[in-house]
Specification:
about 250 residues; alpha+beta; globular
Length: about 250
């Protein structure tokens, strides 16, 4: 993963730690007698810098959500008592069991909720990913539904150190060179990955750090860290909605 692909907060933290390390080393070398005390003070300042990086990231995250809300028509929610959030949560309770709500819908505030193309949508930092509370902080971008759609995941090919089994070739050479699709029902998956979806994915080129997962409860993409670029949210939602609509339409037909 290149520098520009790292989450904003991680880049800030690396810079702060690097500067702190250089200053601490310089104090110890330049001040043999009092350098230890100075180094401790510098390390304390570095720790404060990391806290400040988290605060700055939180503000940028909220601004990114607010801009994405304006561009997509979603609603920015800051607490569970928000009317729009309560209405959508009531629908999630009808659609999904408690485990699904916990792992695929619930999360931290602020967040975005609403509908796109009639489908429930959420953008938020989840409580955990794949039952791993110790996993990295990330932003879950999701379009929710209930469907009997074949489950599959789309990965950037460069993400995978080793190619797994059950690879689905779409027949689109450009797409298959860039992405790896993993699933069991190859024909149905190829049908869902129509030309419009493939071309849109090729133009954007991202699948998050866990791939784009299509399941019977929705389409999900996880971005490392709290997103600070509203364009990531907007672009991801366009692609996920395309996939979700095809899944729902296929189920209804």
């Amino acid at each position: 993963m290149g520098w520009s692909e790292l989450p904003y907060e991680r880049r800030l933290s690396i810079i702060i730690l690097a500067i702190t390390g250089v200053l601490v080393l310089g104090a110890i070398v330049a001040l043999p007698e009092g350098g230890g005390r100075v180094a401790i003070g510098l390390m304390a300042l570095g720790a404060l810098g990391l806290v400040a990086a988290g605060v700055v990231t939180g503000r940028k995250y909220r601004r990114a959500l607010a801009e994405a809300a304006q561009r997509t028509g979603l609603h920015l929610v800051t607490n569970k008592d928000d009317d729009a959030y309560r209405d959508l949560w009531a629908e999630f309770k009808r659609l999904f069991d408690r485990d699904t709500r916990t792992w695929k819908v619930a999360g931290r505030f602020p967040c975005l909720v609403g509908r796109i193309e009639g489908l429930p949508v959420s953008v938020r930092v989840p409580l955990a990913v794949d039952f791993d509370y110790l996993g990295p902080e990330c932003t879950r971008i999701a379009v929710h539904f209930r469907s009997k759609v074949p489950q599959f995941t789309i990965y950037n090919r460069e993400m995978l150190k080793k190619l797994p089994s059950r690879i689905v070739e779409t027949g689109d050479d450009a797409f298959d060179r860039k992405f790896v699709v993993i699933g069991r029902q190859a024909e149905a998956i190829r049908e869902l990955l129509g030309e419009q979806v493939r071309q849109r994915l090729l133009r954007w080129g991202r699948t998050g750090f866990k791939g784009i997962a299509v399941s019977r409860t929705g389409v999900f993409l996880y971005e490392l860290g709290r997103v600070t670029d509203p364009e990531v949210v907007v672009q991801a939602l366009e692609i996920l909605t395309l996939l979700a609509k095809r899944a729902v339409d296929r189920d209804e037909s």
